[in-house]
Design goal:
This protein is mainly α and 130 residues long. The chain is 75% helix and 0% strand. The chain is elongated. 34% of the residues are buried.
Amino acid sequence: MIRLLAAAIIAVIAGFAVTKFVEAIGVGFTGADVTVGYKAVLAVSWFIGSFVAALIALLIGRRWAPLGGLAASSIFLAAMIAMFSNPLGWVLWVCAAVLTGLGGYAAIKLTKASNIHPNLRPDESIFDEQ
């Protein structure tokens, strides 16, 4: 249980860092004015951040799918806080919800995570046939 908690904390921090890093790179190209390009950079940074957060959580947490969803939804929470703080428009709300969900879903599908808790799964070996 401690491993899953640590996985969630590490993944969320890494996801926030990646989101801010991608946003900073995008602002360098588009400028800090609130334009369509800046909004697109925000949406893409939230997608990449949710993907990275979910991926890290799933890798540390032994591919438990709800953990990846939790990490991706924490990035969506950060996106909601940013949109409450700044008038960015309703289209960005929809984009944030869809893209952060897609980021988490892509990480879950990439790692072939399952909903079965890691402690309840049968023992798996490298040489087991699937």
